[in-house]
Amino acid sequence: MFQDGLKEKRLEIMKFLLDANIPYSAKEVFSGHKVVHVRDLGLEQATDEKIISWAEKNQAALVSRDFDFANILNFPSAKYYGIIILRLPHFYIAREIKRVLNSFLKKVDMQEIHGSTIIVEEGRYRVRK
C-alpha cells in the first residue's frame, strides 16, 4: 500500500483497440501501452463482430462507446481480453473523453480488465466478469 491509501498497481503493458466512436486523439492517453485505433486498421466501417474478432485475435482490450458490446449474451466477457465501455453523455467532446479515460486508467488494476466487461462512467467504473 502507498501512504495515500491507493493500492500499488502492477505495471503491465497491455494492448488496446479503440473503436471508431472513440476520438483518434485518445491514443495519447494510453502511454506505456500498445494502442491501435480501428482507423489505423481500415476497420472504421466494420461490423461489431469484425472489430471484436480483431481484438480477440490480437489479445487487445476493446474500448468503445457502443453499448452493444456490453451485452454479455452476445459478447461474453470470458471470451475476450477485455471490453471497456464508456458510458458518457453524447455531447462529450474529445477533451472530456480523454479526461475520463485517463482517470480510469490511473485507477484500474490492469488485471481487472482481463476477461471483464467494464462500464466506465464519470468518476467511477463497474467490472462484470
Q: Into which percentage range does the β-strand content fall?
A: 15-25%
Low-confidence stretches: 1-9
Backbone CA Rg: 14 Å
Distance between the termini: 25 Å
- Dominant shape: globular
| Secondary-structure element string | EEHHEEHHEE
Q: Percent range for helical residues? A: 10-25%
Number of helices: 4
Query: How many beta-strand runs?
Result: 6
Major sheet size, sense and barrel closure = 6 strands, mixed
Strand arrangement in the largest pleated sheet? 2-1-3-4-5-6
The overall pLDDT average reads: 92
Tell me the structural class.
alpha/beta
Q: Write down the domain tally.
A: 1
Notes on the structure:
This protein has helices at residues 38-41, 48-57, 94-107, 110-113; strands at 15-18, 34-37, 61-64, 83-86, 117-121, 124-128. It is of the alpha/beta class and 129 residues long. It has one domain (15-128). Strands 2-1-3-4-5-6 form a 6-stranded mixed β-sheet, sandwiched between helices. A hairpin with a 2-residue loop joins β5 and β6. The radius of gyration is 14 Å and the shape is globular. The model is unreliable at 1-9 (pLDDT under 50).
Question: What can be said about this structure in brief?
Answer:
The chain has about 130 residues and is an alpha/beta fold. It has helices at about 40, 50-55, 95-105, 110-115, and strands at about 15-20, 35, 60-65, 85, 115-120, 125-129. Strands 2-1-3-4-5-6 form a 6-stranded mixed beta sheet, with helices on both faces.
Annotation keywords:
single chain, 129 residues, alpha/beta, six-stranded mixed beta sheet, 4 helices, globular, disordered N terminus
